[in-house]
Amino acid sequence: MKKVLFASTALVMTAGVAAADVTISGSANMGVKSIGGVTSVTNEIDFDVKGSGSTDSGISFGASVDLDASQSNTVAGADVGTGANDPEVFISYEGLTLTVGAVGSAGAQGGLKDVGFDEIGIDNSAEIGAFAARNVHVAYSFGDVNVAMSMDSTSGTNTWALGVNGSIDAFSYALGYAENGANDTTTATIGYSAGAVSANLFYVNNGTNTGQGIDISYTSGDLTVTAVYADNNGAGDQDAFGIGFAYDLGGATLAGGFGDAKGVSVADLGVSFSF
Fold it and tell me: Which ranges carry the Porin domain (predicted)?
C-alpha cells in the first residue's frame, strides 16, 4: 500500500529519539450491491493515520487511528461517518510488540476468502467464532512464525486468547483459541498456494456449534477467479456458496461476485483501490 506523507518527511526528536514519521494510507470502494433482490449503490472510505518512530537504542513505537465513512442509497440513515475508530498505541523491540487499544482478539486467526468488491458474506456462514474485545495484545515473530496473546484488562470475566500462524513451503497455517468466560472458540485454517492455484480449509468450534468451509482461487495474468463454500451446524438453512472475480487494473481492482447466503441471493460489482 502506497504511503502518503501527512506531516513532514522526518521530525527530529530529542531525548534519545532518532526520528518519527506521520503517514496516511487508505482504501475506498464504490459499486452496486444486491441482497435478496434489493439493489443499492454503495461506497466506503477508510483512512489509517499512523505515527511511528524509533529511539537510538532500537526501540520502535507508534500509534494509529482509523477514519471511516460509508454510504448506501437504499437505507435510511446509511450515510455513516463514524469518525475516529480503532485507536492503538504500540512499542516494539527485536520482534516483540506490545499494543494497547482496540486490538481485537489474538484468537481470530485465519478464515475464508469472500468474493465481490466489498464482500457478499459467503464466509460468514462458517466464521461463527465468538471473539470478545481485547485491549492488550502481545505479539512475537521469528522466521516464518508469528505468535500472539491478547486479553481484556477491564473485564471481570476470564477473556483472553492465543494465536499462531506461519508457513511451511507451499502450505500455511493459522490456529486460534479464545476464552470468553462461559464459552470458548477454537479455529484452524490450512492454506495452500503454488503457481496459479491457492486454497484454504477452515474449521471453527465456538462451544455450541461448528463451522467449516473451503475457498479455491485460480489466477491467470491480472484475473483471479475465486469460489467459496461455507456452512455451520446451526438450525435451518446455513449453507452459503459463491463465485467471483477480481481484475487488477494497476492501482485499482474491478471485482464482483454472486451467490447464495443462507437462502438469500447476494451479488455485487464495483471498484476498490488503495493509496
Answer: 7-263
Phi, psi of 143 (to 5 degrees): 60, -130
Q: What is the pLDDT of residues 98-142, one digit of tens each?
A: 999 988 889 999 999 999 999 999 999 999 987 876 789 999 999
- Nearest to residue 70, comparing CAs of 133, 3, 118, 1? 118
Average pLDDT over residues 15-30: 78
Question: How many C-alpha atoms does 3 have within 13 Å on its Cβ side?
Answer: 12
Give the phi and the psi of residue 210 in degrees, each rounded to 5. -115, 150
Distance CA 238, CA 122 (A): 10
Average pLDDT over residues 53-68: 92
Q: Which residue in 267, 227, 273, 241 sits closest to 254, CA to CA? A: 273
Among 202, 216, 258, 262, CA closest to 238:
262
Averaged pLDDT for residues 240-261? 97
Contact by Cβ (8 Å): 82, 114: no
How many CB atoms neighbour CB 53 within 10 A? Answer: 18
Q: Scan for cell 480449509, then name that residue.
A: 201
Q: Nearest CA to 217 among 203, 197, 202?
A: 197
